[in-house]
Amino acid sequence: MDHTADKVFSNVAFVILLVQHVILVPIALLFILRDILVFGFKEILLAKGVAITPSILSKIKTFFIYTALIVIPFYNQLGLLICYLSLILAYITAFMYYSKINLDA
Predict the structure, then answer these.
(1) 62: number of Cβ within 10 Å
(2) I need a labelling partner for 22 at 20 to 30 A (CA). Which of 4, 65, 77, 87 fits?
(3) Residue 23 has what DSSP assignment?
(4) How far is the C-alpha of 64 from the C-alpha of 100, rounded, in Å?
(5) d(CA 104, CA 40)
(6) Helix and strand tally (H, E) in the chain?
(7) 0.85 cut: is pTM over it?
(8) What SS3 string covers 64-98?
(9) pLDDT tens digit string along 25-46?
(10) How far apart are CA 68 and CA 80, in angstroms?
């Protein structure tokens, strides 16, 4: 799936789950905030000429997000647990992008 379509789909899915009162507002906002932060970090890295390669954690995070979105309608608690795990991985990967930025340069 295209990277942009991936972000749009997952964010829209989280908003739908939010409207249906399946997930809490802070959880949906944390996912959307993470996407905004990573987008900004990637733009800074591109401006500095740093090569951006997705890490294995990013791939695992994406797998967990889609798994959570599939599981939540059938097994709400298990899906939410997977969702929270993917949120933790999401911020770990965001920090990995941030750590690539050399603020002294």
Answers:
(1) 19
(2) 4
(3) S
(4) 24
(5) 18
(6) 4, 0
(7) no
(8) HHHHHHHHCCCCHHHHHHHHHHHHHHHHHHHHHHH
(9) 998 899 889 989 988 998 888 8
(10) 7
